[in-house]
């Protein structure tokens, strides 16, 4: 509301002003016509109307009140009382998809008091919540614990659940895991019926069986599975060949088998290898002096759109060093640097070997300095290679300096390097 005490003086002043104007007009005009002679003056009613405007309150703009946003309605699962159980669907998902629960089942089975104890009591507690494929992790965990018998008993329990119609069996995942565990511990007895058994087994079961035999060191049976699968025009995963090549190439007795497997792998129209498997096969090829196979795998890997790792680069450089292709090996170093691939200690060792074999003293010194700047400690063979390349250029002082440096860190030079230093002293 407007304060009437402040409006009143204003109204009086306006009234006085209009009164003076009216008097002046009356003096100038002798004809009276009700307070206005020519129609241009103000009447008393008009003055009262104008004065009444100042008596009205000035309206204020209404202030908008902020509305509080209502809180969202609570979700049913959040307002569930403590006494009401959680739906079985959530419990089922937590059991069949949770590795901790599946591993706990294996640990509970392993904790049974005696080997004669019945396994069924443990999975029976989780049976309503298990689904197809759930127990495969449990069986693998029992294999890691060294309990193949318990793994087989768990499979037999799952087979009995087929009558319950809960979807636990038949299941290739459970069967493959059990077969792999039994083959790994030598408990899988196939006998003369192996051909009939393999012809009816699925691919996943065959691959699991081969992996189990490979881990057990039974390469002959693993090889037999590959041959029977080939005769049956069934193609197993290429990683089986890679793992078998790796195991066979560990000893000279297996070089012949590894070479045959390598030829079979090269005959396949399509195959896919993980980077670590591809690098492992390359290392075996170097031992077999199959350098062309190393180059073929390296080109295939790059053409597949993947980026070689420093380990793969080092393996290929070592292959070219063994094949006496020193310049090609040095070209690979520049390719590594162009792709911003950081060198590790084994890579520096091979790089320095290539520089020494090429009699490239400048590059050998450069990479030897980079090795130290990167925080690596030179190994015994690196010191020996650097001493040899310095000796080839007659740098006796540098040879002695490196010899003292190697001895200060507790390294002992090989006999060839010591003999070389002795010859240089005699020449002087």
UniProtKB/TrEMBL annotation:
Origin, by domain of life?
Answer: Eukaryota
- Write out the ranges of the annotated region (Disordered): 20-89
Which keywords appear in this protein's UniProt record, sorted alphabetically? Repeat, Transit peptide
Q: Which InterPro entries match?
A: PPR_rpt, TPR-like_helical_dom_sf
Q: Which Gene3D superfamilies match?
A: Tetratricopeptide repeat domain
Q: Where is the composition biased (Acidic residues)?
A: 22-33
Task: Spans of PPR repeats, please give.
Answer: 344-378
Q: What is this protein called?
A: Pentatricopeptide repeat-containing protein
